[in-house]
Amino acid sequence: SATPSADPATGAAVKAADRAHVFHSWSAQELIDPLAVAGAEGAYFWDYDGNRYLDFTSGLVFTNIGYQHPTVVAAIQEQAGRLATFAPAFAVDVRSEAARLIAERTPGDLDKIFFTNGGAEAVENAVRMARLHTGRPKILSAYRSYHGGTSTAINLTGDPRRWASDSGTAGVVHFHAPFLYRSPFYATTEAEECARALAHLEATIGFEGPATIAAIILETIPGTAGIMTPPPGYLAGVREICDRHGIVFVLDEVMTGFGRTGKWFAAEHFDVVPDLLTFAKGVNSGYVPLGGVAISPEIADTFATRPYPGGLTYSGHPLACAAAVSTMRVMAEEKIVEHAAHLGATVLGPGLRELAGRHPSVGEVRGTGAFWALDLVRDPETREPLVPYNASGGANAAMTAFATACKKSGLWPFVNMNRTHVVPACNITEAEAKEGLARLDAALEVADGYVVE
Ligand code: PLP
Fold it and tell me: Is residue 289 included in any domain, yes or no?
């Protein structure tokens, strides 16, 4: 694979222009120091100083087939030469084909696809469809969740660090979803956590008034908030509650879709079919922005003769759809979904558990497929997180030291609060995964230094 050649002067110029003119997401502009990226291939990227990094983040958990897959790059180039863009009201071959392939892969009878440019817009539109379909105003969503950075999506997001950027949470009600390691219900077994979480949801619905609730939205396996696989029976229980109250069930699979968990969609692990399913990221590995909502026949019918009041200039953009068609074909031909499942079961899962056995800073290992989190703790007994909630500056010293150690060893880590997520490309080789685990092993020694005696 490609070896980086050092070109520090160009790197410095790229960085200077970035500092002068790019306004970065979620950041204090003067406090960040973004790496200047010179190139990327497969599971790796490199800078202008000759440093090569194994990417354990796959961007923001989206390059499911790795960087620069030649087949997908060629498909985008071919589409650009043929028909680079076209407005959404027309039937375009590559758009129809992308919709057909996505509908074929989504669970159950979700047969109509509304295209957006990303995940947040998918969530915005799913919620709008649910409100119009039911004629009800409220949406229930979980604490410890992430649903996107736009107005409604950010308010649905169950993380108060994000709400400061918007005006309020009108029509949004939060509840606790199951998370046994840090149980909101003081449960000690998965069965207890599941039963209590469902009772809590039912009680929340009772107090809010079922007839006021349009939808319940959940990430099938919450990602950004910590990769917390729900206990057996939970999602089936939510499905039953939704059916009983006429509430639309939305599963947000923006992060978990398209092979990430070792299935095409995480819902397959739990044998549930939502009424609406949101996707983005892995649909085309993020090569061109694309997201969307997969829609049940009942909800699609609501808009059979009544216009759907929503749309986007670039909905189903031909370049994005060409990338999606090609990505789904590559995933099938190279058996990438099966590979992610195998990698989780034989390399990442066992390897991370082995690290947890040797490093006192690892409180819990959670995940499946190419979707894992290490919950790092200061005290394994009390499960006190390695850094306080929402830590920044000096309070974040332990996680900063851990991340720095990873980067120095050539591993680019995903770090969020007291967690590191192991979310590489789904087609990373076993040897690459093992190389990453060895580097993680060394960096965890640094985290261990912050554990109380
Ligand atoms: N929903 C989930 C579950 C996500 O993980 C994300 C992004 O991380 C989003 C929605 C928002 O997607 P986007 O950033 O493409 O708008």
Answer: yes
